[in-house]
Amino acid sequence: MSIGREGNSKNLIFPPVGRLAPSPTGEMHLGNLRTFLCAWLSIRANHGKLWMRMEDIDLSRVRPLSVESIVDDLAWFGLDWDGEPLIQSDRFLEHKESLEILQSRELAYPCICTRADVERAASAPHAGQQGQQYPGTCAQNTTSTAQELTVPFAWRFRHDRESETFRDLVKGEVSEAVRGDFVIWKAGKGIQSVGPSYQFAVVMDDHFQGVTEVVRGDDLLASTAKQIGIARALGIPSPAWIHVPLVIGEDGLRLAKRHGDNKVSSFRKQKVPSDVLCGYLAWSLGWNDAKVPMVPKDLLHNWSWQSMNKMPWVLGKDTLREMGFDPAKAG
Ligand code: GLU
To answer: Is the C-beta atom of 22 inside 6 A of ligand 1?
Structure first.
């Protein structure tokens, strides 16, 4: 990946349309919340619309109570959205129709390779999960080859470029390798293994919801290159891209269980007030001089992509102390 000059707002549309797109595969942690705060600010500060989309297509990873807990944590924190949440799996038929368009143009082909690749496809590939370059083993297949295949097969998108260059409002000009044709439709044994990949569903749904800007963690930059390719093939305009730096552990890796319990619900259980958490996150983003408690609305006139801290936020082991919160003194 290469990154150039800092972005400007040339490709922004006003009023903007954004989305919060959590995967209900577990509870929300501090890093997710920080990115959602950024997405919310960008829309609310510009009087746009913010949709909620539950990205639940990875049935093997969806956890039944996650939807409720995510919605509840966001409301507690002070983030809202417009209308009812869109449930991604409800759009299976529309996704299928879009796949058929690509098939009819020979822009998708059936592929019997790499089970691991196919299994991973329904989830967003966060840092380190991008997989290998696809060598093109099945690229000579055509849509009609599918009728001859006797084993389960996926559909791969025929990406016509080795890399994509795009403008990101935070990162500037970004060039990302594509790593070959990639899975857009899983087809295996059993209902859980059939359906659109994350890369495919996200493009269709952002378009369906009229999304004009995507704000998400910068570990999804490689996915953006793939999504731009799909959108171009279908004649869909791409949104403005805004990739924000992640919260990471002291080992430099994306926040995970091994870094301790940073679930929003755990902070709530320890009686951390939402304004303490928000003040801390705002401080980490460069929008609060000190860890002064505040609610998201207080930030509306005080934030900008230009003034955002562009470095990943390294979380120490004792998050509560970093926040300046003493559980012993909590009422
Ligand atoms: N649902 C994805 C995730 O939680 C994010 C998708 C996106 O923002 O494009 O990892």
So the answer is: yes
Q: From the CA of 82, how far away is ligand 1's center (Å)?
A: 18
Mean pLDDT of 221-227: 96
User: In this predicted structure, what is the pLDDT of residue 9?
Assistant: 42
**Quick check: 159 and 228 in contact, CB under 8 A?**
no
Q: Which strands form 154-157's sheet, in the order they lie side by side?
A: 108-111, 154-157, 182-186, 195-196
Coil, strand, or helix at residue 299? helix
Please state, in angstroms and rounded to a whole number, the distance separating the CA atoms of residues 128 and 217.
13
For the chain, give every domain's residue range. Answer: 17-24+46-62+88-246
Tell whether pTM > 0.85.
Answer: yes
Q: What angle do CA 190, 119, 199 make, to 5 degrees?
A: 110
The answer to whether 228 and 252 are in contact (CB under 8 A) is no
Our answer on whether the CB atom of 186 is closer than 6 Å to any ligand 1 atom is: no
Rounded Cα–Cα distance for residues 48 and 19 (Å): 11
Q: What is the pLDDT of residue 244?
A: 98
Confirm or reject CATH 3.40.1490.10 for domain 17-24+46-62+88-246, answering yes or no: no
